[in-house]
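Q: Hi! First time doing this. I have a protein sequence and I read that you can turn it into a structure. Is that right? Here it is:
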Amino acid sequence: MLNTFEPMHQEVSLISLLVSDYDEAIAFYTGKLHFFLKEDTRLSDEKRWVVVMPPGSSGCGILLAKAANGEQQSRIGNQTGGRVFLFLRTNDFDRDYQALLDNDITIVREPTVEPYGKVAVFADLYGNLWDMIGPVY
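A: Yes, that's right. Below is the predicted 3D structure, encoded as structure tokens:
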């Protein structure tokens, strides 16, 4: 039974993203998307605990998880059946959209203005789809 005197506090802390290689994924996320490497801990000869986060973020991070078998490898780049998988909120859409272009990131859908903000869809190095969402001024 829940203690009714203490409010519940939960949060999603990590999202696991299948990758084919730790180092190439780290290079993409830190070099092209300018995320920071929060942790890179070797767990075994084959497995590492690698977490990246967007700049300025203190919330949910991305656990870069190297595919360990054929089933997992078949899901790299398409963990959600082709739907947008991850959502990156920014305080300066135009600056960050230009950075995507400058870093040769694949733009899947050009910017549009929606009721929830300015949005563009881009693909990461494996083809996972991301929405980048920013405020409309």
